[in-house]
Write a structure and sequence with these properties.
- It is a single chain.
- The chain has 112 residues and is an alpha/beta fold.
- The protein has one domain (2-109): 2-Layer Sandwich (Transcription Regulator spoIIAA).
- Helices cover 38% and strands 28% of the residues.
- It is globular.
- The termini are far apart.
- The mean pLDDT is 96.
Amino acid sequence: MELLNSIQGDNVLVIQVQGDNLDASNVRDFRDGMQKLIKEQTRVVLDMSHLKFVDSSGLGALISCLRDTNSRKGDFRLSNISRSVMALFELMRMHRVFSIHENAEGAVGSFS
């Protein structure tokens, strides 16, 4: 799974997931790629605009990223979540766990 990344705003790492699904078939690649990208970052935004489906293993990988960032006194935020993925987040009450923003720009700006 390809992860595009850039630094925006006040040293905020924005990562865009390139793929339709985050599930058991690609979660290991996602987790490995994310660990490399966020290992020294304290401000991270994950742009999920391309994702149409996330299963429980994908949700677990996102929680892992959140915990990893929080362990360094940082923050991990999500943006551009599709309706179908948001439905899962609401069902699993994950919308209360993650800081979710309409778009990446709003998430980056919320760090200020």
